[in-house]
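Record 1 of the preview.
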Amino acid sequence: MKPITTSLAERAQLRFQILEKIFKQLGDEQSRLILMYYRGYRTRDMAKELNISEPVLKNKLRAAKKDVKNLIGKYYR
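->
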């Protein structure tokens, strides 16, 4: 197995810093939605956990994913 080069480690650190900035800009609710989604939660389980209806959850999740996409674009232009 190849050892991680400094440049790979630096790139990984940069990506981590960008993700931290993105999650700070999203706020608590959107961050939680995104994390639950990418951890594989089903929408009905997410809605139940957050005590909101599934259609409301889907709208909020759609908005959160759009915001993440826009923020990622901001850092990788």
